[in-house]
Specification:
The protein contains 10 helices and 10 strands. It is an alpha/beta fold. Helix 4 crosses helix 5. The longest helix is centred in the last third of the chain and has 18 residues. It starts with a strand and ends in an 11-residue tail after the last helix.
Length: 226
C-alpha cells in the first residue's frame, strides 16, 4: 500500500520506518525538501539530522507535502499542532479528498516553555478543525497519547498491554485504522466515537506531559482497566 507521512520529525520517521519494514511504499512529506536534505542539526531530543536517518532508511521516499499527498492512499499527519493546517493546505485539497488521514497531532503551545498549554481545548479539537476544513477527508485521530517509539511497537512496554484510542466520523476509516494499528502490534483499541471525541485524547496529553516530568522517561502509556 502507498502511505504518506506529513512531517519529518521523530514521529514521522518512526511511522515511516515501520511501514517500510512491513513492505509498503512510503513517502515522507516536508515543506522544503532541499532544506530538509541539507539539515545538519540534531533536534531538541538529540535525534540525528534527517539526512543521517534517511541514509539508514533509504527505502523511504522524500517529497513535498503535495507530492506526498498525491502519492499516497493513506496519510498520517505527524506535523506539530500549529503546523498541521498549513501543511495540509500545502498538500492540496484535491490530493487529500477521499483518503484516510490518521491524525497524530496535538494542539500544544510551547511558547511559554514547559509544560505547554493547549491552544485548542474543551469545546473543539485539532482533529475537528482538520475535519471541518477538509470535509471529504476521512480524519481519524489516533496515536497522539504516547511517545513515538510505542506508537509502532507497543510491545516495548508491558508486553503491549496498554490502550490506544480512535476517533472519527467514518466507520470504515476507523476500521481501516484499527487494522493498521493491529499490524503495529496493538491489541487494546477503543473506538471513542465521532471526531468530537478527539477533544478527550488531545486533552489527555496534558496529563501525559505532567507524568513525563515526574517519571523522567517517555516510556509509559495509559491502560483502561474494565
Amino acid at each position: 500500500m502507498k502511505f504518506g507521512i506529513l512531517g519529518s520529525g521523530m514521529v514521522g520517521r518512526g511511522i515511516a520506518a515501520k511501514l517500510v519494514e512491513q513492505g509498503n511504499d512510503v513517502m515522507i512529506g516536508t515543506r522544503d525538501v532541499d532544506a530538509l536534505m541539507a539539515s545538519t542539526a540534531s533536534d531538541f531530543m538529540g535525534n540525528p539530522p534527517f539526512p543521517v536517518w534517511h541514509a539508514q532508511n533509504s527505502g523511504v521516499k522524500v517529497g513535498s507535502f503535495a507530492e506526498t499527498a498525491a502519492h499516497s492512499e493513506v496519510l498520517f499527519n505527524a506535523t506539530n499542532g500549529y503546523g498541521s493546517l498549513p501543511a495540509l493546505s500545502q498538500a492540496g485539497e484535491s490530493n487529500l479528498n477521499g483518503k484516510l488521514l490518521i491524525d497524530i497531532s496535538n494542539p500544544l503551545d510551547f511558547s511559554q516553555g514547559m509544560p505547554p498549554t493547549m491552544f485548542i481545548s474543551n469545546t473543539d479539537s485539532l482533529g475537528e478543525q482538520i475535519q471541518r476544513t477538509y470535509p471529504r477527508v476521512k480524519v481519524v485521530k489516533s496515536l497522539n497519547t504516547l511517545t513515538a517509539a510505542l506508537m509502532v511497537n507497543p510491545g516495548l512496554l508491558a508486553d503491549g498491554d496498554h490502550t490506544i484510542f480512535v476517533s472519527g466520523n467514518d466507520s470504515d476509516a476507523k476500521a481501516q485504522t484499527t487494522e493498521i494499528l493491529k499490524s503495529f502490534g496493538w491489541h487494546d483499541i477503543i473506538d471513542l466515537g465521532d471526531i468530537t471525541t478527539a477533544r478527550g485524547t488531545e486533552m489527555l496529553v496534558a496529563l501525559w506531559l505532567r507524568l513525563l516530568g515526574v517519571l523522567q522517561t517517555p516510556m509509559f502509556s495509559f491502560k483502561v482497566v474494565r
